[in-house]
From TrEMBL:
<dbReference type="InterPro" id="IPR032047">
    <property type="entry name" value="ResT/TelK_cat"/>
</dbReference>
<protein>
    <recommendedName>
        <fullName>Telomere resolvase ResT/TelK catalytic domain-containing protein</fullName>
    </recommendedName>
</protein>
<feature type="domain" description="Telomere resolvase ResT/TelK catalytic">
    <location>
        <begin position="21"/>
        <end position="203"/>
    </location>
</feature>
<dbReference type="InterPro" id="IPR038280">
    <property type="entry name" value="ResT/TelK_cat_sf"/>
</dbReference>
<dbReference type="Pfam" id="PF16684">
    <property type="entry name" value="ResT-TelK_cat"/>
</dbReference>
Length: 215
């Protein structure tokens, strides 16, 4: 079984390497806009809350329900935060040291594409602006209240082709940028690294056609 699994994985890596399976993305404009938006929040100005939400999603790769309900960020570096509030598989127990704890309570240290201070400020700003639910609420409330509005707002972010712009795609853009920024990660053989920073084995996202980052 293990041999078959390894063979399938090698095939997946080889498929990612094929030019026809790559798409090109350019984060320059989006990261500049996100930086400006979060700086406005820091300076006490009044940015559009949807822009703040999208900026955090792009800079951290977190899901909509995490940004608007469960996520907690603690700055641990200029471009790194400790994240808790993982929602996918949130009730599953994972071993941390000599204990098993719910995945939602596991601390993930993740890179940020913008200064970590701004990311933390942005999340706090959303809460103070009434755009976050209590962490003990049902995450589906986020989808019911914000999904349509935020997915429409994503159309203004020119990362992917317009018909592919959704909130979840920020997660794909984040993953690719982190792979490029790290320098120690194989740009096509990155499953273990992806699990570390995404917090789960998101096979659809990990196997999404490999974006070529334009710098």
């Amino acid at each position: 079984y293990k041999e078959r699994q390894n063979t399938r994985y090698r095939d997946t890596v080889n498929e990612r390497r094929q030019r026809e399976n790559r798409i090109e993305i350019d984060l320059t404009n989006s990261l500049r806009f996100a930086y400006t938006t979060l700086t406005q929040a820091k300076n006490g100005e009044e940015p559009n809350w949807m822009d703040v939400s999208c900026s955090i999603a792009l800079a951290t790769g977190r899901r909509m329900a995490e940004v608007h309900l469960s996520a907690k960020f603690e700055q641990v570096g200029d471009y790194a935060v400790n994240f808790t509030g993982q929602l996918k598989g949130k009730d599953r127990k994972v071993r941390v040291g000599d204990k098993k704890i719910a995945k939602r309570d596991v601390v993930f240290t993740i890179p940020t594409l913008l200064p970590a201070e701004l990311v933390c400020v942005g999340l706090q700003w959303l809460g103070e602006s009434g755009k976050r639910f209590s962490p003990d609420e049902d995450p589906e409330r986020v989808n019911r209240r914000f999904s349509k509005t935020l997915n429409q707002a994503c159309k203004q972010w020119d990362i992917f082709p317009e018909d592919e712009r959704t909130y979840h795609k920020f997660r794909a853009a984040y993953l690719r940028a982190c792979i490029v920024n790290d320098g120690n990660v194989d740009p096509y053989d990155f499953t273990d690294y992806a699990k570390e920073i995404l917090g789960d084995d998101d096979e659809f996202l990990i196997n999404f056609p490999v974006p070529t980052l334009v710098v």
